[in-house]
């Protein structure tokens, strides 16, 4: 065949195909309004709510694809913007639930008509199997155990649509745990059909396949590029959502996410740095959402069992030397709620995180260092995770400069992300900056994770008997006044001994098209398609 | 006298095997020598204590002796299994099969663009040294090498997408609303042409333009410089002078005698540029959300995800070897003297 004739022929064929296949304009506009396009940096990596090494973005997937017995209710914070309410619950698969035997038994009544995406009815046996799976697999069992959900034998099928859970004692953390994605209900027959002897819970299969009853099903699962969701019209867990489709795309460059949003090609942009948020704040074509993440905090930590930070006066001196305002401005452009400068050393309320009673006061810092016998200063390293560099790098420089005024010579150490976890686990860093969060806001829950124990999350490597006693007493305290008293005392200890110095509460920030209504911020900071509407 | 082509190819393929084995061993050891613990990385949610980390290490097989891990790994490779990435949650083979065509498509189109610009530019510069066009060639080369790819990329996005609206959104290979054509080769342009899907072909082409230009600019500099240099040398050589004195036409001298001889240097440069582009365009991939192999490997490296990094190195080593083979064959075509020895 002559090359020239071939080329001409294929060009003509291409042109004809273009003309023939253009979609109808009106139909396209309609489809566009009912389709949501999210651009984010984070990408999901699993469809298994109990999976190991699950990325934060996967939690958004679980919320939309699976149902739980119950979910957190939400309240409106400003016109059209909601946030989850940690203290109130609403049914998802359960239409009602009641507690008996002094809270030692919880009975859930399932919606009788709910089905999984493959049409199989959702039964109490599915719920039992899913919870048993959750308490058996390593990635979910520790979390569920914080709500006394520990043993498969606790879950009892009463009849096809009734499930009972038994406890040794009433636990106020049970319901919050049941509202997390770890308590998602999975199509047990479907997963079992893919289970093997080596993998009885079907984890291998469920990682890249879904088995949910949630409002959306996964249409295309291409997690490192884009995931397409389509509405499950048979959903019974709530009112049928407005959006028929949702496309979540991974766009690593923040400037590209901003550009597509401002251009109207994307509807929601997540994980925007403060600078980009400030840059688009004046743009009428987009709406910026900003909420404090109350279960999260940015902090500077010491290894309290290593010299010189084993001396409480040294820690307090540094807490007085940190340039808090400059840190907040320099690192996140003021996008955070200060957790410093409380007026009183007595905690204002029994809640955590709350502002620490420290503010920049170099005279006090000098006096404390002198008292500790380090009036002429000392040398130390200040470390941070390279993956956190945008925020941690300015912090490190400001800390270095501020402590230099006290004669403390700080060497900055940047640690590769891959190495960071191992170093924290092995307590190899004396002084560092990090951010963290816990699932729940109960102060005793917070304290158990961050101020106790032998694990990485006890960032200050802190040990204090009195604090342990108070926190343990608060765990099962049912009397509010006594609970608050114990917690205030525990907070007082942390104020005084500063194993970590709190800096600020980070903000959850996203930008969206102004026509979108009903955006709900959840614990995981991902997008819940179910509540969104296009006005 | 050139030997038969199939024998030559076979010999070269056999010669590549030790290189690949070396690449496997090298990456395997390097990944484990580098500081970082995938188990500690994976167990990074509150609630994971030392026991969970130990259990994960067992599950990942990291508690076994290094030699045993290597034997297991080589056995897996022999079965075509490159392991599973825990950052993407997918088998590495699947990830690479999906991402390699994306990288190749972008690299090829950028290379095509670069060659189409660099050859005329270099030749013109060589014909008139010191002229405006020669300075232009030098300017383009300097700009191409000195401007970071992401600056060029962001600038192009701002101008052609955001301000002018000519280019499509800088996300991936196709319009987000569009269903991708059935994957046959993984190349969007080829697959959509095979499926007769006009809109997909057009969308794929439109999405290719800006990232290709960004990458081409990077490749333009070495190619244009080498073309210019080779042509300058040749145009002042004896046989060209002879050809001129014999009264051959300018065109014949330029294309048949000078350019053909310059090609050997250009093809060598092309091979090097191709290999570099394929593995080193992380920034272009990030800025355009292009689902290629380099950003995949970098993300994996950042989180001590061994399997994808090992898989990536193996595949890129293979491609590098293949590219060299192709270049050697092309040598034989453009210059019979190069033969097929070795």
From TrEMBL, chain A:
Cell location: Periplasm
UniProtKB keywords: Signal, Transport
Predominant location: periplasm
InterPro entries listed in its UniProt record: Peptide/Ni-bd, SBP_5, SBP_5_dom, TAT_signal, TAT_signal_bac_arc
Domain of life: Bacteria
Coiled coil region boundaries: none
Residues covered by the Solute-binding protein family domain: 90-454
Family membership noted in the UniProt record: Belongs to the bacterial solute-binding protein 5 family.
Protein name per UniProt: Peptide/nickel transport system substrate-binding protein
Organism: Labrys wisconsinensis
Highest classification ranks of the organism: Bacteria, Pseudomonadati, Pseudomonadota, Alphaproteobacteria, Hyphomicrobiales
TrEMBL record, chain B:
PANTHER family: DIPEPTIDE TRANSPORT SYSTEM PERMEASE PROTEIN DPPB-RELATED (PTHR43163:SF6)
Cell location: Cell membrane
Topology of this chain in the membrane: Multi-pass membrane protein
Pfam families named among the record's database cross-references: BPD_transp_1, BPD_transp_1_N
Annotated transmembrane regions: 12-34, 106-127, 139-164, 208-226, 262-284, 311-334
Protein name (Swiss-Prot/TrEMBL): Peptide/nickel transport system permease protein
InterPro entries: BPD_transp_1_N, MetI-like, MetI-like_sf
Keywords: Cell membrane, Membrane, Transmembrane, Transmembrane helix, Transport
Location, primary (coarse class): membrane
Assigned protein family: Belongs to the binding-protein-dependent transport system permease family.
Boundaries of every ABC transmembrane type-1 domain copy: 100-331
């Amino acid at each position: 065949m002559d090359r020239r004739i071939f080329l001409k022929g294929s060009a003509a064929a291409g042109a004809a195909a273009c003309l023939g296949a253009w979609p109808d304009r009106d139909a396209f506009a309609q489809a566009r309004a009912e389709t949501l396009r999210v651009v984010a940096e984070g990408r999901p990596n699993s469809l298994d709510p109990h999976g190991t090494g699950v990325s934060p973005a996967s939690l958004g997937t679980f919320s939309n694809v699976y149902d739980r017995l119950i979910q957190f209710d939400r309240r409106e914070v400003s016109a059209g913007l909601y946030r989850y309410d940690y203290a109130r619950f609403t049914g998802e698969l359960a239409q009602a639930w009641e507690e008996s035997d002094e809270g030692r038994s919880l009975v859930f009544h399932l919606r009788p008509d709910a089905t999984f995406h493959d049409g199989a009815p959702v039964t109490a046996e599915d719920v039992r199997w899913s919870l048993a799976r959750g308490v058996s697999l390593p990635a979910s069992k520790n979390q569920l155990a914080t709500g006394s959900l520990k043993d498969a034998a606790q879950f009892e099928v009463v009849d096809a649509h009734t499930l009972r859970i038994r406890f040794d004692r009433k636990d106020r953390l049970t319901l919050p745990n049941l509202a997390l994605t770890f308590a998602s209900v999975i199509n047990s027959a479907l997963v079992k059909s893919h289970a093997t002897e080596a993998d009885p819970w079907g984890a291998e299969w469920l990682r890249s396949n879904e088995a949910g009853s949630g409002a959306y099903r996964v249409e295309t699962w291409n997690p490192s590029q884009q995931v397409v969701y389509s509405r499950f019209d048979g959903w019974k867990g709530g009112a049928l959502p407005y959006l028929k489709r949702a496309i979540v795309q991974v766009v690593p460059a923040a400037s590209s996410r901003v550009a597509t949003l401002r251009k109207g090609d994307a509807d929601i942009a997540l994980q925007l740095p403060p600078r980009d948020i400030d840059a688009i704040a004046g743009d009428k074509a987009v709406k910026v959402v900003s909420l404090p993440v109350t279960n999260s905090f940015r902090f500077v930590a010491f290894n309290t069992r290593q010299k010189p930070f084993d001396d409480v006066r040294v820690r307090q001196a540094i807490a007085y030397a940190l340039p808090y305002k400059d840190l907040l401005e320099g690192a996140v452009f003021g996008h955070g709620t200060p957790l410093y400068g409380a007026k009183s050393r007595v905690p204002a309320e029994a809640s955590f995180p709350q502002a620490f009673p420290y503010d920049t006061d170099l005279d006090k810092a000098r006096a404390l260092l002198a008292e500790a016998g380090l009036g002429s200063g000392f040398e130390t390293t200040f470390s941070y995770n390279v993956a956190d560099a945008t925020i941690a790098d300015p912090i490190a420089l400001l800390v270095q400069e501020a402590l230099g005024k006290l004669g403390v010579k700080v060497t900055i150490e940047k640690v590769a992300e891959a190495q960071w976890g191992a170093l924290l686990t092995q307590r190899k860093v004396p002084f560092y900056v990090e951010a963290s969060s816990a699932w729940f806001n109960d102060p005793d829950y917070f304290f158990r994770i961050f101020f106790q124990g032998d694990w990485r999350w006890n960032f200050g490597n802190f040990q204090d008997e009195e604090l342990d006693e108070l926190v343990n007493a608060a765990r099962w305290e049912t009397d509010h006044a006594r609970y608050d008293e114990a917690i205030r005392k525990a907070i007082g200890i942390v104020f005084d001994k500063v194993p970590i110095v709190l800096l600020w509460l980070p903000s959850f920030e996203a930008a969206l098209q102004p026509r979108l209504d009903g955006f709900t911020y959840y614990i995981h900071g991902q997008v819940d398609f179910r509540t969104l509407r296009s006005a | 006298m050139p030997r038969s082509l199939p024998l030559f190819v076979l010999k070269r393929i056999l010669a590549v095997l030790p290189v690949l084995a070396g690449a496997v061993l090298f990456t395997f050891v390097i990944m484990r020598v580098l500081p970082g613990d995938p188990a500690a990385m994976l167990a990074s949610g509150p609630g994971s204590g030392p026991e969970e980390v130990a259990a994960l290490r067992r599950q990942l097989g990291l508690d076994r002796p290094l030699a045993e891990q290597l034997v297991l790994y080589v056995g897996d490779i022999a079965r075509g299994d490159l392991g599973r990435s825990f950052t993407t949650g997918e088998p590495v083979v699947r990830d690479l099969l999906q991402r390699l065509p994306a990288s190749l498509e972008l690299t090829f189109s950028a290379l095509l663009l670069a060659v189409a610009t660099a050859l005329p530019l270099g030749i013109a510069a060589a014909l008139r040294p010191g002229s405006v066009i020669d300075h232009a060639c030098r300017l383009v080369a300097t700009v191409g090498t000195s401007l970071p790819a992401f600056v060029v990329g962001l600038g192009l996005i701002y101008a052609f997408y955001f301000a002018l609206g000519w280019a499509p959104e800088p996300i991936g290979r196709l319009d987000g609303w569009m269903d991708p054509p059935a994957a046959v080769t993984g190349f969007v342009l080829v697959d959509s042409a095979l499926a007769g899907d006009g809109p997909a072909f057009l969308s794929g082409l439109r999405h290719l333009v800006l990232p290709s230009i960004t990458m081409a600019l990077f490749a333009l500099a070495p190619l244009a410089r080498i073309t210019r240099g080779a042509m300058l040398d040749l145009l002042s050589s004896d046989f060209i002078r002879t050809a001129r004195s014999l009264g051959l036409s300018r065109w014949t001298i330029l294309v048949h005698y000078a350019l053909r001889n310059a090609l050997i240097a250009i093809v060598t440069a092309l091979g090097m540029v191709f290999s570099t582009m394929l593995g080193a365009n992380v920034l272009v991939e990030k800025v355009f959300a292009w689902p290629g192999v380099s950003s995949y490997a970098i993300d994996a490296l950042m989180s001590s995800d061994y399997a994808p990094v090992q898989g990536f190195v193996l595949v890129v080593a293979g491609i590098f070897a293949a590219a060299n083979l192709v270049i050697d064959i092309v040598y034989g075509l453009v210059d019979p003297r190069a033969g097929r020895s070795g």
